[in-house]
Amino acid sequence: MALKIDPAVVEAAAAGDAPLERLIEAVWPEAYRLAASILRDRSLAEDVAQEACATMARSLPALKDARTFSSWFYRIVTNRAVSVGRARRPTVPIDTAAECGARFDSSDALDLYNALAALPIDQRAAIVLHYYGGLNSFEIAVALGVAAPTVRFRIMLARRALAKALAIPSDTPNEVLSHVR
């Protein structure tokens, strides 16, 4: 579910012709979902989403091309989430869907959620942006500030780790990872 914001809305907010709050309201849910997917902590995700929206508001006038807003905003959220994730210890696995505010349709999805939480933060960010954000390796590279081959390598390592943790064949991650959303 990639973030889709009309470039005209971005340009109007950057120029002060439209309320910035309208843009923040449009991006907030996606910022929170992305941060929560990376951090696996609701409270931290709220903090990261709030900080990302504040950074976006301050930096919006410097954005040169409104058509790149989505990947630019993903980079802000992801960088902040990864920074926060690196600074703290791994969390205890989630035992119930209610604990994380997510909707799981099976215990397999809950297992996936916990397997994702066990990934190193760099791999988790790459795989979440790929499967959840719907971004390609170049877009993820821009969001993470690394080279596209690095992104592909991180996704490959994450897939292998998830396949091992979930005891599934390593060539079928797309079906299983559809639960990331």
What does this structure look like?
This protein is an all-alpha fold and 181 residues long. It contains 10 helices and no strands. The N and C termini lie close together (8 Å).
Helix content: 55-70%
- Please trace the helix and strand order, writing H or E for each element: HHHHHHHHHH
- Taking pLDDT < 50 over at least 5 consecutive residues as the criterion, the unreliable ranges are 92-104
Total of DSSP H or I helical runs spanning 4+ residues: 10
Report the mean per-residue pLDDT as an integer.
Answer: 82
Q: Quote the beta fraction.
A: under 5%
Largest sheet, if any? none
Q: What is the first-to-last residue Cα distance?
A: 8 Å
Write out key terms for the chains shown.
10 helices, elongated
Provide a compact summary of the structure.
The chain contains 10 helices and no strands.
Please give the structural blueprint.
Blueprint: H1 7-15, H2 20-39, H3 42-59, H4 69-87, H5 97-100, H6 107-118, H7 121-131, H8 137-144, H9 148-166, H10 173-177
